[in-house]
Each structure stands twice: as structure tokens, then as C-alpha cells.
Specification:
Number of strands: 12
Strand content: 5-15%
Number of helices: 10
Order of helices and strands: HHHHEEHEHEHEEEHEHEHEEE
Mean pLDDT: 91
Helix content: 40-55%
Length: 413
């Protein structure tokens, strides 16, 4: 196992080094006339960006001083996002590069094909044009290649910066509201229209703090739900560092329920369970509560297994009245298979972020049964939220953040 991990790590490192060398070559070496300050600055920028990115990830997981996490997080995590879209844009530039180089070449060829007549004195021999050296390029070729490289590199940089900038603005302005109607066969007629505000993956941390939490709470309250379901990954850090950031949760107007996500187990899950309870939320740790119209259950995240606090579906659901509708809060969509076996009617999850950064949705789809939205698995429905915040880069591309209002519908209404 250690050998396999080592080989994978070396392979990943090789790919990372090759990708960054390619970026440096296209953005700096090919756009300059020779070795000099610009190439050295480019190499320093790329290497420095990755030092900050690795420092941000390691600092967060290792519990570095919070001020240091904040110093590293913004430039480091933004570089992660920017490097992805720089690489994608530069690769896309390879398609247009030959076309751009061909256009000036045609103009040069047309000009050369119609030389202007020069007067020759009577009785003299016209001068013979010098023959080019074998294998040499036309005089305009180096400048044309440099011009095309600069155009493609400039366009790639502009596209990447614009994409990351807009994606970051989308996160910082706060999540939008999505409304989904879910029919449940066992739901009584009197519960038709019951509203559950689902919020997941807020990820309070070095980049998203108290101000962001306030936006999330205000948005939830504006939807006037009957209950609020916080389905994991609330924080990326300790109660000591992020307790003040999470404080706006006490302003939620509706009864609110909480289950752990995998990131809570990186941040002191037991302490956070107590903190959200202090803020007025009701933690469902492999537990169930009987609401007037249906059962609401919650299971711990899979990551809790490392601490002996993993999901226990039997404890949460084993002795319930199966004639009643049941809604389950479970952070990860992969927990749907256990939910089906225990007769759950609707599972509410997060975790995937909808991929967060395109084309990350394809990676998320390989690891999760549902990336975002509502799908049916046998008699159980699964709804996966894209989440309200973001992990790592405070940026989303192709997967806008949301708070989903689930409106339950009775088939007897």
C-alpha cells in the first residue's frame, strides 16, 4: 500500500512539474526574445504561487496560527484556481496558434510574389538576390512567431483571470435560492407545501468569515422555511478560531438541525457539535426526531469512522414507524445506499459542491452517485445541494452556490 501511494505521489508530482513547466514556457519563454528578467520573474511567480498554495492547505490541516492561515489562504488558494484555468486556456490556445501563424505568412508570401520593378542602367547586369541558407526561416518568421505567442499568452491570461475573478465574485456575493418540489407518498395532506431550507458546505474558514455567514443566514431567513437543515461542512477550523464567524447562525428564525460533514472531523467535530447546540441548532448524531408530519433523522459523516463516530443507520432509523414519511440528513450522497435499505423517503445531502470548478464536475461524478439535484434510487429520493460556500479557492465556475428550499408535496393533496 505504501509503495502504491509512493508511486502515485511521484506520478502526481511529475504531472504537476510538467504542467507548470509548460505554463512557464508558453507564458514567458515563448513571449520573450531571450533569457532575462521576464523569464526569471515568471518562474518565481509560478513557483511562489505553489509554495503559497501548499502552505495554505498544510496550514489549515495542521492547525497553524489563524492569522498565518489567512495570510496564505487568499493568494495560495486563488493561485490554485488560476493555475487550472491558465492551463486550460493555454491548451486551448494550441488550436488557434497555427491559424494565427499562417495568416501573416500568407500576406508575406503575397507581397514577395509581386516584386516592384527596379530601373537597371543600360548595359549593366541586374544584381542577383542572395540565396537563403539551407534550412533557414524567412526573415519575418521569428518576429511572427513571437507576435503569435504573445497574442495567445495574453488572451489565455485574460481569460483565466476573468474566469477566476467572476467565479470569486459569485461566491462572495452569497448563495442564491433554488426551489425544488419533492412529492412524498407517505406525507399527510396537511403537510403539503412544508418547506425545508437545505444549506450545506458553508466552509467558514480563513477566506469566508462572519460576513459570509451573515449573508447565508439572511438568505435562509428570507425564504421563511418551516425548518432549516444544515447538512455538514460548516467550518474549516477550530471553534477557537471560527466561533465568532459562526455566531450569526443563532439568528436563524426556524427550528434548525445539523449533521456533521467530513470537514468537521478535521476541525474538532465534538467541539463543533456543542457549539452549534449553543447557537440554537439541534445536532442529529445518528438520531431521529418525530416532527408532527414526518420523521427527521440525521447520521454522522463517514469521516467520523476514524474517531469511532461514524454513521449508524440502525441507531437513527431502526425502531421508527415505517408508515410515517422519513427525511434523512446525510452529508455525503454515497450514503444513499444505506438510506434505501432503511426505507428512507428522502435524503438531503451536500459534499460535492456540484464540482465547484469546471471540469471538476466530471471528477465529482466519478466519486458520487449524484453530483447535484434530485434523483430517485428505488423508493428513495436523493437531493444533493451544490452548497453555499467553497472549499480552497473561494471560487466557483460552472457550479453556482445555492440554498435550496425543498417544498414537500403530498400525493394525497
Amino acid at each position: 500500500m505504501v509503495v502504491v501511494f509512493g508511486v502515485f505521489a511521484l506520478l502526481a508530482l511529475g504531472v504537476l512539474v510538467a504542467g507548470n513547466w509548460y505554463l512557464w514556457r508558453r507564458l514567458f519563454r515563448d513571449t520573450t526574445r531571450g533569457p532575462g528578467l521576464a523569464r526569471r520573474v515568471g518562474a518565481a511567480m509560478i513557483a511562489g504561487g505553489w509554495v503559497l498554495a501548499v502552505g495554505a492547505v498544510v496550514g489549515e490541516r495542521a492547525g497553524a496560527p489563524f492569522w498565518l492561515q489567512q495570510v496564505l489562504a487568499w493568494p495560495g488558494f486563488l493561485w490554485l484556481a488560476l493555475s487550472i484555468y491558465l492551463l486550460l486556456a493555454v491548451v486551448a490556445g494550441e488550436v488557434v496558434r497555427p491559424l494565427l501563424r499562417r495568416l501573416p505568412a500568407r500576406r508575406a508570401h503575397a507581397t514577395a510574389a509581386v516584386p516592384q520593378a527596379q530601373p537597371v542602367p543600360a548595359g549593366s547586369v541586374p544584381p542577383k538576390a542572395p540565396e537563403p541558407e539551407p534550412g533557414s526561416a524567412p526573415p519575418s518568421e521569428p518576429s511572427r512567431r513571437l507576435f503569435v505567442s504573445r497574442v495567445v499568452a495574453g488572451a489565455a491570461a485574460a481569460a483565466a483571470v476573468g474566469t477566476v475573478g467572476y467565479g470569486t465574485y459569485g461566491v462572495l456575493r452569497g448563495p442564491g435560492v433554488k426551489r425544488v418540489t419533492v412529492p412524498l407518498a407517505k406525507l399527510p395532506r396537511g403537510a403539503h407545501g412544508y418547506r425545508i431550507a437545505v444549506v450545506s458546505d458553508i466552509h467558514l474558514g480563513p477566506t469566508l468569515g462572519r460576513g459570509f455567514a451573515q449573508k447565508v443566514v439572511d438568505t435562509i431567513n428570507s425564504t421563511q422555511p418551516d425548518i432549516v437543515a444544515v447538512v455538514g461542512d460548516l467550518v474549516d477550523g477550530s471553534v477557537k478560531n471560527l466561533g465568532p464567524a459562526a455566531a450569526p447562525l443563532s439568528q436563524l428564525n426556524a427550528p434548525s438541525y445539523f449533521v456533521t460533514g467530513n470537514h468537521e472531523y478535521f476541525s474538532g467535530a465534538a467541539q463543533w457539535v456543542e457549539e452549534v447546540r449553543r447557537l440554537g441548532l439541534h445536532p442529529l448524531e445518528n438520531a431521529r426526531t418525530e416532527l408532527p408530519w414526518f420523521d427527521l433523522a440525521g447520521v454522522n459523516d463517514i469521516a467520523g469512522e476514524s474517531e469511532g463516530q461514524g454513521p449508524d443507520f440502525t441507531k437513527a432509523l431502526g425502531d421508527r414507524d415505517t408508515a410515517r414519511a422519513c427525511v434523512l440528513l446525510a452529508h455525503q450522497p454515497v450514503q444513499i445506499h444505506d438510506a434505501v435499505r432503511h426505507g428512507v423517503d428522502l435524503q438531503l445531502s451536500g459534499h460535492t459542491h456540484g464540482g465547484q470548478l469546471w471540469p471538476g464536475n466530471f471528477i465529482a461524478a466519478a466519486a458520487n452517485p449524484t453530483v447535484a439535484g434530485l434523483e430517485r434510487y428505488g423508493d428513495t429520493q436523493l437531493y444533493v445541494s451544490r452548497g453555499a460556500g467553497a472549499w480552497g479557492p473561494p471560487t466557483r465556475v460552472g457550479a453556482p452556490s445555492d440554498i435550496t428550499v425543498i417544498e414537500l408535496a403530498s400525493t394525497h393533496a
